[in-house]
Amino acid sequence: MTCPRFRFSAVISVFILTSCLVISNDVLAAGFEVGEHTPQATARGGTGVVNTADPSAINFNPALLSHVQDTQIFLSANILAMDVEFQRNDLVLEPGGDPVQSFEPTTNQTGLFPIPFIAASFDIGPDDLTAAVGLFTPPAFGNPCYGTLEDGECQPVRDGAARGMVVETDMIVAYFGAGVGYGIDLGEDRQLDLGLTGGLAYQNSNFAVMVEADLQTTPPWQEDPDNEAFVRGSDLSGVAPLAILGIAYTEGPMRIGASYRPPIRWTVTGTADVEFSELLQSQEAQLSDNTIHLETWSAGSLRLGWGLQGGEHPANPDWPRWDFEINTVWENWSLVDNFRIELDGDIEARAFPPDEDGQYPSFSLHPIYQRKGYQDTLSLRSGFSFGVNSWLTAHSGGFLETAAQPKAYTSADFISWERYAASVGTSFHLPADLRFDLGYSFIHSPSRTVNRGEVYNPIPMSRCQGPDFDADQCETAGTPPGNPQNEGEWSAHFHILSAGISWVY
């Protein structure tokens, strides 16, 4: 009887490892998110789909909730720092021509960004049936500023390198979820676990972008700061459904698992404030309606994991002394082809008298399609833990990801190209069934040189409009109006420090 199960386990192990290693290099990774939740996952290279044994399983793989014993409360926070520098190339309007404008290098001006995770699990009756509730946020840097900070507000730099992209983002995304995990005993040291998390995803965001506001919307595009408007969207909010499905299988020292979170479509609505160009200010320009909408996606994610564990931990004979885990995470970021930004109102020139119907002369504003060109993503992660003694467990790990943003679509709002990470951490086993965790990860992105950029400055009064930019008014079919904004030299890296505490009672 042992041999068939061994062959079955070996086949699954080979399948998981093959999935990790042989997926095409054309599949890319990262998206909006950076690193992973919780101190142990941070310290273990972003893994967690087969080894998580606390209420944070509600996010990684709800099937693992069945392994969480008694009632537990889990609190943690990641502190994320993002160092980004972009030096834009000089603006040249004609091939072989002289530069007409130079730009100051830009860096992210904001400091640390906190990412909380709060969860609790409950043994609700039958053996191997555990429920949990949680409040957590995606691991991402939510408030970059590529201008100057004045009284806590990001202001544009007119000759800054990122002036034609989103120069400020202040985004909060929160997941409110309830989960359940159930374990089915298959006998002879085997168990199948199933789990489900359901809830709501909430977003509240602010952003700022410089747009071309010259009434002459034909090339050559001069990028004259006096003919630009600064658009700020405030308190854009909305909710969307959240679900995570999980499955896990244990046989002796081996564990495998998988979880899937469907994509989230965001449609958020807020208020716009526009600082008009000098010409429009002279015409006493105002918006007829300052309602603003943003439409985009958060990718769905599929996690696959394989792990081994063994020995007896000095702190608790029910824990393994060591465990090793490999994860691969696929995310369909190709859903994010663009950000769609739309204002409900037009620009009214109130310096002129209204017509007999009381309508002021106005200029139409078309939706802004900020091209992103994301592709589906993949990451390969590994983590290891070892029980040093009765009060200390050490963790280490690392991961690699390829770029969600093709080089031509490199942009300042979300930094998402190749990443290589190394991480370490510890767990301190304290009296009264307390555990204190620390994790640190350094994430490096190789420098990029963009020569043929596909990120253009928005021109909402042009009749060449997205998402396809193929109207008769387009100078080149398929190409937005304006100049590429992202050509030049880019560099980025991240630091994540994570701390948390869990309590069993």
Describe how the helices and strands are arranged.
Layout: H1 2-22, H2 39-43, H3 57-60, E1 72-88, E2 106-107, E3 112-123, E4 129-136, E5 148-150, E6 153-155, E7 166-185, E8 190-212, E9 228-251, E10 254-261, E11 264-275, H4 278-282, E12 285-287, E13 291-298, E14 301-310, E15 322-331, E16 338-343, E17 347-349, E18 362-363, E19 368-371, E20 377-389, E21 392-401, E22 419-430, E23 434-450, E24 488-504
Antiparallel strand pairs: 1-2, 1-3, 1-24, 3-4, 4-7, 5-6, 7-8, 8-9, 9-10, 9-11, 10-14, 11-13, 12-17, 13-16, 14-15, 15-20, 16-19, 17-18, 20-21, 21-22, 22-23, 23-24
Structure overview:
The chain has one domain: Porin (Beta Barrel), CATH 2.40.160. The two termini are 39 Å apart. It is mostly beta strands and 505 residues long. β22 and β23 form a beta hairpin. The protein has four helices and 24 strands. Helices cover 7% and strands 49% of the residues.
**What class would the helix/strand composition place it in?**
mainly beta
The Cα radius of gyration reads: 26 Å
Show unreliable segments.
Answer: 1-30
Q: How many H/I helical runs?
A: 4
Provide the CATH architecture. Answer: Beta Barrel
Total beta strands = 24
CATH topology: Porin
Placed side by side, the strands forming the largest sheet appear as: 1-3-4-7-8-9-10-14-15-20-21-22-23-24
CATH class: Mainly Beta
Number of domains: 1
Straight-line N-to-C gap: 39 Å
Q: What is the helical fraction, as a range of percent?
A: under 10%
Largest sheet: 14 strands, antiparallel, barrel
CATH superfamily placement? Outer membrane protein transport protein (OMPP1/FadL/TodX)
What is the 3D form?
Answer: elongated
